[in-house]
Amino acid sequence: MNSLIRKYGLFLALSGLIVLVGTTARADGTSTKELIGALGSSDAAAQVKAIDALGAQRAEAAEAVAPLAALLKSPSAEVRLHAARALGEIGAPAKSAAGDLVGLLKDGDAAVRRQAVRALVAIRPGPKVMVPLLVKLMNDSDPGVRMRVLNAISEAGPAAVPGLIHALENDEVASWVCVVLRNMGPAAKAAVPALAEKLKDKRADIRLQAVLALGAIGDAALPAVPQIAAALDDEATRTAATFALGQLGKIPADAEPAIRANAKSDDRFLSTVSLWALARVHPEDKELRREATEQLVTGLKDEDAYVRVVAARALAALPPAPEITLPIWEKAMKDSDPKTIRYALDALASLGEPAVPRLVDVLEKHNELRLEAIYTLGQMGPVAAAATDALAKLVGDKDMNVATEATLALGKIGPAAKGAVPALCAALEKKEDTNRHAIIFALGEIGPEAAAAEPLVLKAMESKHQSLAVMAARALTKIDPSSEAKAVPVLVACLGDSLPETRKVAADSLGALGPSARAAAPALKKALKDHVKAVREAAARALKAVQ
Predict the structure, then answer these.
(1) Does the model's pTM come out above 0.85?
(2) Considering the chain, what is the average pLDDT of its residues?
(3) Reduced to 3 states, what is the DSSP secondary structure of residue 69?
(4) Which residues, including other chains, have CB under 8 Å from residue 540's CB and lie 6 or more apart?
(5) Which of 155, 149, 170, 161 has the alpha carbon at shortest distance from 191?
(6) Distance between CA atoms of 508 and 128, rounded to whole angstroms?
(7) Per-position b or e across 169-188, b if 16+ CB within 10 A of its CB
(8) What radius of gyration do the chain's Cα atoms show?
(9) Cα separation values, 325 from 295, 334, 352, 383, 385, Å
């Protein structure tokens, strides 16, 4: 697992930006024709600048579509990525580039693939264009290509659902489309009627994937429960239908006898899933819950990797019952191999506070699983307060990934992690390059309990690196709410930083101060013209708050 911080990566997490990190240019008087000419430069940086300027012109740059599409085959991933984004910004006039963008879904660079999908969603070429292209890609002989395409499309979210519903009508890709809709989960709720209809399909693989997709969609798929229950009679979909009913937490009365019978099946996979589904629907039945939990924990050690993954997910999806699960879990964790533990960390975290000592144990005894355990504790937030001391010991770890993740986890725990303040201050005082952004973030999230760190935070506000200065100013206002007079000038200055992430965090931080940051109103008004949409939106919210 990579650290969430890569120099300025924390700003992406804080600001929620989807935009590309980089320098975005505007035309600034340069004609479209001149910018198109600049696309032929041998200097990638000059190409990117021209590409972004054309994208900023949006539909007015329609004549640039063909040369931009040609750049989608550039040897530079940065150029390909920017070209894809520019085509998306141009919108409908860029429909002729849809084929080239779909071809980019095979790109070896994940960021390029994601940008290609966003561009396709923005262009909206329509099912007549997209479905044939999807058919071609889904039939690619390389399974890695197919998986990249699936992941890229699922990241497009609800905007891609109408086209996927249409694609379900094509038998060549229907099974893959169901997989995409399953990955989308609740965002694919509009596809429920079409998926329910696919349960009648003559092809077993399509029926199987359709029922799994319905289960993943959640509550919006409840109207399809009768059709899912009917799939219990189908040998090809019996286990999947049971799993889906368990996910939805609804087993029709006339279907329950069949599932109870399947719970005693010699097929360990069917019996495990059946027990799990019954335990989900009848949480008050402790004996059933105990039996299901024991069988699922045993499944974590199964030779079949698929059984292990499903067992881990099923454990995580059971309602928390520490009094049942923890004793079984302690027995299972003893002498378990790292692979078994790794699969099950999420399931353990679902138990909440009682699971924290077990996670700390993993943290201290399984060196190769430290990052996973730290990340899980961070995701648990304040309920993981008992892990503060263990995490504080890792803030200065020589492995920067471990140090950064531990620091971020302390920040997510918040004020309850006040015991880590001395360790965070000690790390911040070191002269060598440390995870300063993460430390400042964590101190800010701890809040007034981190008052001892205020002098160090004030010093960080003077940094020549505005990315660190804005973080420090933000943290100061959380540590000392009366410090607005010191923080506002720094935040205003950071509104002019070259990084859009820094500008957005500055705007959001000013907005959080409310009327006490009224002096920032002129700078926020200027930021309303920022060339990055996310920054403009943050400035608008902040301006309203300070006024």
Answers:
(1) no
(2) 82
(3) helix
(4) 528
(5) 161
(6) 42
(7) ebeebbbbbbbbbbbbeebb
(8) 26
(9) 11, 14, 12, 18, 21
